[in-house]
Amino acid sequence: MRAIATAVLMMAMPALAAPVRDPVAGAALLRDRALAENSALAIVTGLTTEIGPRLAASVPEAHARDWMAAEMTALGLAKVHIQTFAVPHWERGVETATTIGPNPQRLMLTALGYSGATPDAGLDADVVQFADLDALKAAPAGSLAGKIVFIDHEMRRAQDGSSYGAFNAIRTAGPAIAADKGAAAYLHRSLATGPARLPHTGVTRFPDGTKPIPAAALSVPDAKQLARLVALGPVRLHLVLTPRDLGPGTSGNVVGEITGTGPDVVLTGGHLDSWDLGTGAIDDASGVAITLGATKVIADAVKTGALPRPKRTIRMVAFGDEEAQGPLGGATYLKGHPEPVVFAVEADFGADRVWSLRSRVAPAAAPAVAALARVLAPLGIAPSPLPAFGGEDIAAAVQGGAGVVDLAQDGTHYFDLHHSADDTLDKIDPQALTQAVAAYAATLWWAANSDVEFRPGPPH
Amino acid sequence: MRAIATAVLMMAMPALAAPVRDPVAGAALLRDRALAENSALAIVTGLTTEIGPRLAASVPEAHARDWMAAEMTALGLAKVHIQTFAVPHWERGVETATTIGPNPQRLMLTALGYSGATPDAGLDADVVQFADLDALKAAPAGSLAGKIVFIDHEMRRAQDGSSYGAFNAIRTAGPAIAADKGAAAYLHRSLATGPARLPHTGVTRFPDGTKPIPAAALSVPDAKQLARLVALGPVRLHLVLTPRDLGPGTSGNVVGEITGTGPDVVLTGGHLDSWDLGTGAIDDASGVAITLGATKVIADAVKTGALPRPKRTIRMVAFGDEEAQGPLGGATYLKGHPEPVVFAVEADFGADRVWSLRSRVAPAAAPAVAALARVLAPLGIAPSPLPAFGGEDIAAAVQGGAGVVDLAQDGTHYFDLHHSADDTLDKIDPQALTQAVAAYAATLWWAANSDVEFRPGPPH
């Protein structure tokens, strides 16, 4: 009788059962628990509604840090703290473009991050169209003096986002190339795959010695319209872009953890900042919410005794200013946290479901990765033979020797929304978001409660 | 030998064959010819690229009339002429809305046509949300003094567009109801079914005695965001809307025809004007292009002798100012053209394929409609038991006694784009547009070369 009573009690109160010590079994347990809750959706809803856009160095980005620190604490993370670092502060201004002629047409466009400005009254100039960046590079020096360069290059959807990797130099490098050839301004077709008439911003870079020129992205429909107009004859535009550099500003990381029993760290997170046009729901409140939601599921399981305290500390970071200065958040994290990062996984590719597992770990860790793949398979995730890419915010940790996996999210529609006003909460599919949380929770635990050496090189 | 040679010659040169006199056989011939060409796409491309937006009473609307008259003439229509009429001239101004608080958020919205204006510096007011128009109507008189009314009512997709018919009083009548209760301004969730973060405009009406208040539509994502913010606590907005009434202006119809052998008229067309945000590609350059493209296919067949001159004149009208003043274009047409309109069919529901044939004709004409349905069936069009609706521009002719059919286009995605900046050429599927041209060409000929009395009532 007593044995039966005990067994019944254990079924009714699983928290009193012995903690699950095997990392693979623990990963499966967390996968299933994560599928049964939706804390990530609450996080992304709160951040994008209560704070909204979170441009690097802006007041709302600072408020988002406080919001996130409170959220991490409320969700059971330990040692929550904020690390600040200096970044340039840039602000969007007026942005309009109108064709000059008997039927003036307004073209919808948006300044690229760190674009130069036109005079407040704007400038009038002729448009010179190029098919791609190579065609622009081939233009003779000085041949573009006083012209508005326009690159009308199409980007198609790709599940793995590779079309963005292939073509984003049109945005990041194109304006400086045009400036060096004397152009008055630079326009390009947004790096976008959707049909909506909304332009997509993003950072552009002017090397030292190149004076920034006004640079903007046209929405896809407007780029097509401008190309049709250019095909009919010379086009002259009135362009007004009045962004401003506001001098040095402050960004920062928010860091919390589930403290492990040993010295090593498993690093995860997403970035807290966003572009200013949307509310940064898919880029990257979702990534923060997925990794924090996963960490919360783990914290709950540890707190109730379903899982033991992990061997390695799981450190969750909501990184600052990924969009503009890129590596600064990750580098700042490492500077303030000298504990060895043995494994890292980042979330910065939207809110859609994870479809592929890629890894870059020590050869001896391959059987462990295969075991993880079996835990993730019921989520519809297939292992890939391709190496993991990592990501901007964990790049410094990976360069420092950490093993890494990509839980690759489906990016088929990511660039429909990315960096545009359309990056808003309503675009998120809650079921897909929850699937991603389950994948991250399983993966973090599998790495954190493990003795496997993931680092591909000699210890650093 | 000679008979064979003649037969071979007739096959090789069908234009020399005797004209097809049976109206149903002629309709089938035109259906197939229309499927083999794409003149409608060229028309909509030219109009939306060379002219662009065509707001009633604007300079581009006047240029569009000249463009259209030249196009009709070039495509072989006879007696091409322009009828002008007076309309109010209204112009959009600045339009911004920002939440007031620690994290100001910009909401994307657009003034409704004929909206009142805020002061140039804007106004600050608290938001009062209502679920629907009935809830607003139930608010006590004076209870909304100084408030911004916000109706957050969802509209779902419907193939026949009926959800717009059901809910558009939220836009047309809501602002005046709010004004009568003392509201400072009026906002509503766009009458839109798509996810894009673009607001949808449209006309609103203030009866005599009601002073116009600022009235605008929020994009769907912004309406959802505002509703979430209201749920968190009181929301105060800074609203700037500076549209202007410019006094009386001029709009007009462009009229052309294929002259018939008898006195009666078959009337068709779409509207030339558009809202100012997009280029009016689906609303309604497509309708003009479909009906003009259909007329052009008929004109070609008559010119080459494949078809005889029709018994009834096919009159094609590109109507002015449908969007704001509605019936004026149709009434002006009738005033200037006293010939009896025995049949009418309009195109003002986008660029998608025709899926349904509805009719409202004399009972004795039912067999003729059944014959038309057989001609249209290979295009995937099914006859409907519902009566035809007609449309704004042919309403006066239908009220005057004309028989009418609807070649109902698929409206599932029409309100994703309608009245928004997203109403652009790239949204048009050329194959669907061509299918619609084929349906209109067949229908116009079937009605025009017929002796059937379509008019449902006693002769007018």
Structure explained in plain terms:
The structure is a homodimer of 460-residue chains. Chain A is built from 15 helices and 16 strands. The N and C termini of chain A lie far apart (57 Å). The first copy, chain A, has 2 domains: 19-87 and 248-448, 3-Layer(aba) Sandwich (Aminopeptidase); 95-246, 3-Layer(bba) Sandwich (Glucose Oxidase, domain 1). The first copy, chain A, has helices at 2-12, 23-35, 39-51, 59-74, 133-137, 162-167, 169-172, 174-180, 220-232, 281-303, 328-336, 366-376, 395-399, 414-417, 430-448; strands at 78-91, 95-99, 106-107, 109-111, 123-130, 148-151, 185-189, 215-218, 236-241, 244-258, 265-271, 313-319, 341-346, 354-360, 382-387, 403-409. Mean pLDDT of chain A is 95; it is low at 5-15. With 460 residues, chain A is an alpha/beta fold. The first copy, chain A, has an 8-stranded mixed beta sheet with strand order 1-10-12-11-13-16-14-15, sandwiched between helices. In chain A, strands 3-2-9-5-6-7-8-4 form an 8-stranded mixed beta sheet, with helices on both faces. The interface between A and B is medium-sized, with 33 and 33 residues.
Rg result of chain A: 24 Å
Helix coverage percent of chain A? 25-40%
Look at the structure and name the CATH superfamily of the largest domain in chain A.
Answer: Zn peptidases
* Mean pLDDT across all amino acids of chain A: 95
* CATH fold description of the largest domain in chain A: Aminopeptidase
CATH class category label of the largest domain in chain A: Alpha Beta
